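Limitations

Structures in this collection are predictions, not experimental determinations, and the ligand pose is part of the prediction. Treat each record accordingly. The example that follows, with coenzyme A as the small molecule, is included so readers can see exactly what is and is not provided: the inputs are given verbatim, and the output is the predicted complex.
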Amino acid sequence: MALPIFTDRLVLRAYEEDDLQQLHAVLYGDEAAMRLLGGPRDLPGTRAALERSIRQQEFGGYSFWPVIERESGLMCGEAGLFPLAADGPDVALGYAFGSAYWGRGYATEAATAVIAEAFGELAMDRLVAITREDNLGSRHVLGKLGFREHGLRHVWGAEQIFFTLQRPAATA
Ligand SMILES: CC(C)(COP(=O)(O)OP(=O)(O)OC[C@H]1O[C@@H](n2cnc3c(N)ncnc32)[C@H](O)[C@@H]1OP(=O)(O)O)[C@@H](O)C(=O)NCCC(=O)NCCS
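Predicted complex:
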């Protein structure tokens, strides 16, 4: 797994325990960012999410990764891959950014790099994604990335639209 991953404006790297305060301030404690993701977390809730990602990286070789803005050196969100269910096989693309960082193309830029990693280094054949019906911004991003919609499913505690993206033949 080739971390860190560099894009034009962003870096994705592995989470560290020390990321807690920054992650909470920029994302998990941000009411607007978490509105469609179950609401803002308290600090123990953010710690639990951070530890889940660190464990997933250790045992699965991929995870959600903090996204750092290269120009400022600040964390602006997270993006990466997570098993949809503990018993597999689907792996979901995910991304979330602090509201101060929306509208700059960061979700599209980070997700494009994650997809390249999934179909390249990680040799995955298919990715899935889920988003709530009213998350129009995220649905738009997934459409731009080439994901196809497959109707609603109950996933991660809510009714969500289920999307898939197949590995393109050129990288197979
Ligand atoms: C959804 C989210 C990831 C988008 O991040 P972003 O960095 O602003 O996304 P981008 O700038 O790459 O692209 C957003 C696109 O959606 C469009 N968009 C944004 N809000 C929209 C809305 N309410 N309705 C329709 N389109 C919308 C933008 O115009 C842009 O389209 P364009 O590139 O064609 O102009 C961000 O708002 C976020 O982190 N939200 C909270 C967490 C979340 O919901 N994560 C997704 C969970 S499934």
